[in-house]
Amino acid sequence: VQLQASGGGSVQAGGSMRLSCATSGGPASYYYMGWFRQAPGKEREFVATINWRGSSTYYKDSVKGRFTISRSVASGTVYLQMNKLKPEDTAIYYCAQYNERGDIFTATDYENWGRGTQVTVSS
């Protein structure tokens, strides 16, 4: 399964952006699909994750109430709607598939990392 993140760009603080994570090359099903981000000079960090049925979602504390993760069961595409963006949200955003063995909040327990998409929020 290959994952491809898209939808990034530049926006002013307070603006919105919607990221998409498309799947290809295999069955569009997963246990959890997550979004992570990495800012320059920082480690990759968990942002949000969603299970296949969409019944379970988790968020990083700093994005709760601003970001919403969702998915299309038909296509397997996972979305990240980001509202009220802040400069500290600036990063490369990646999507990845949980490996069903470890912690759903830890990047090392995800696989099939797609190429990230840059999100830049200016003040």
Short characterization:
This protein has 123 residues and is an all-beta fold. It has strands spanning 2-6, 9-12, 17-24, 32-38, 45-51, 57-59, 67-71, 78-82, 91-98, 110-111, 117-122.
Unreliable spans? none
Shape: globular
How many H/I helices?
Answer: 0
Proportion of residues in helical segments: under 10%
**N-to-C order of helices and strands:** EEEEEEEEEEE
Q: What does this molecule look like?
A:
The chain has 123 residues and is mostly beta strands. It is built from no helices and 11 strands. The protein has strands at residues 2-6, 9-12, 17-24, 32-38, 45-51, 57-59, 67-71, 78-82, 91-98, 110-111, 117-122. The strands form 2 sheets. Strands 2, 4, 5, 6, 9, 10 and 11 form a 7-stranded mixed sheet that branches. A 4-stranded antiparallel sheet has the order 1-3-8-7, with no helix packed on it. The model has no long low-confidence stretch (mean pLDDT 93).
Features:
single chain; mainly beta; 4-stranded antiparallel beta sheet; 11 strands; 0% helix; 49% strand; globular
Question: Topology of this protein?
Answer:
Elements: E1 2-6, E2 9-12, E3 17-24, E4 32-38, E5 45-51, E6 57-59, E7 67-71, E8 78-82, E9 91-98, E10 110-111, E11 117-122
Parallel strand pairs: 2-11
Antiparallel strand pairs: 1-3, 3-8, 4-5, 4-9, 5-6, 7-8, 9-10, 9-11
